[in-house]
Every structure is written in C-alpha cells, then in structure tokens.
Amino acid sequence: MVKSGKSHGRLSISATAKPRELMTDRPDVKGAWEARVITLFPEAFPGTLGLSLTGKALDEGLWRLATTDLRQFGEGRHRSVDDTPAGGGAGMVLRPDILGRAIDHTMQGVPPDRNRWPLIYLSPRGAPLTQDTAQKLAEADGMTLLCGRFEGIDERVIDAYDITEISIGDYVLTGGELAAQVLIDTVVRLRPGVLGNAASAEEESFSQGLLEHPQYTRPAIWQGREIPSVLTSGDHGAVDRWRRERAERLTRERRPDLWSRYLAEKDRND
Q1: Which residue of 7, 12, 48, 258 sits 20 to 30 Å from the alpha carbon of 212, by its own alpha carbon?
Q2: Does domain 2-188 have CATH number 3.40.1280.10?
C-alpha cells in the first residue's frame, strides 16, 4: 500500500487496488447509497463532497464513497496505464486491459442490473446530465464512475461493459474527477435525509421543468432595493402564484429550450 501523504481532516486516503472507502468511522447505515470512483487521482476525493450537507451526510453514513486507484492496475515499473492512439494522432488513450481489471475489481459485490447499479464514464460526448437523470441515479443502489484522462478510453471498454456516458456540459476538462464530483453531488442531495427539507429539492431549478424563481431575504431594503411586497404579505397563495410567474418568465427568457419542453409537457397533461 502506498500512502498518499495527504489528509482531509478525518479522511486519510491511500492508494490501493481495493476500492478504498473514504469514511472509515461512519455509522453502518443499512441501504446507504454508494459511489465508487475509478481514478488516477484518488486524492482528489472527497474534495467538495466532504463539505457542507453532502459531507455531513457522508459522515453520518447516509451515503458511502470509495475510490479505486487505476494506477495500481498499470504495467511495468512505472505502472503505465495508457498508450498511443491506434491510427495515430496526438495524446494518449487509457488501455482496455488496464481499465478492464480495474472495473472487474471495483464492481465486485454490486448488483449486475445496470438500472440498480450503473457504470458511468464521464465524457464530453455523453448524454447531458439533467435533473431527471440525477433523480433516476438517486433511486439506484449506487453507481460506479470512471474518470478518464488524456484523450479518453479505449472504445472497446465502453462496448464490453455496457457503460453509460454522461456529460456535465459542452466543454472539455483535463480529467473526469471534477465531473464525477458534480455528478455525485447532484445525486446525493436527492437522497433521503441529506437536504433535511424535502421541499427544497422539489422547488429548485429544473425539478418542475422550470428555472427557479428569484430568492430574497433580510434586510427588507438593501441599497434602496426592496423585497417584493407580495413575499411579505402573508398571502401564501399570492406568493405561490408570484413565484410560478417569475419562474416561467425566467425560463422563457433565458432557456427557450426548457420553455418549449415545459409547454409541450403541460399540453400533454392538460
């Protein structure tokens, strides 16, 4: 075992071929949702996932996080994990034999049904991450994420392991670790008990097909700008109507793609 020399408070991380659970002193909560991450940089986790509500939930055992260090499956003295692209070109590609060994090891003990435990590769060419996707993943038992590097991974791995590709946006990152943290965060916060107030998740952007309405808090007047009077009227019906109208206006103005889908869905339900 090779110690990384880095620590995250109570979270001491070391590189090992076995998936490394990052919270070893947590309660053993039955049915806790779990994320397993295959990465060349296990020290990147938990990162921001160890903070705030997701960190508190991790500490309480409401969800689990484990990493597999891909480098431990590499070959040779330098634990090589990549090679040049077939057909030529710039960069390097993660080798299928290395990835296969890491996936086989990491997926031990998980349900074979991909609906219950999906295997996901964070990729710019993947399907866009949406709130609906996050909700489906939150209803699974857990998920395994593969963080790419360099020019990506050998396509045969995606085909052989029925891997789902997910993108967090139309841009390219240096590696999949940040994308993995984004995906895990979107999912974990939907798990029971994490946010504390279920209504918070229900009222957020995208949860009802709309962007979220504007939010205000004290002081009542700031730099000459007042909180809209309807929000302090005590009329809950009027507040709900105001929030809906503002959410619809924002969505129509800023996200015409969402607005079109919202109208189509509304027509189907009417």
Answers
A1: 48
A2: yes
Residues 6+ apart with CB under 8 A from 213: 242, 243, 244, 246, 247, 250
Whole-Å CA distances, 211 to 34, 109, 143, 187? 29, 39, 27, 18
* Mean pLDDT, the chain, whole residue set: 90
Q: Which CATH class is domain 204-269?
A: mainly alpha
How far apart CA 183 and CA 153 sit, in angstroms, is: 19
Domain ranges of the chain: 2-188, 204-269
Question: Pairing mode, if any, of strands 93-94 and 82-83?
Answer: antiparallel
Token pair, residue 85, equals 């692209």
CA atoms within 13 A on the CB side of 214: 11
Rounded to two decimals, the pTM is: 0.85
Q: Are 2-188 and 204-269 the same fold in CATH?
A: no
How many CB atoms neighbour CB 145 within 10 A? 24
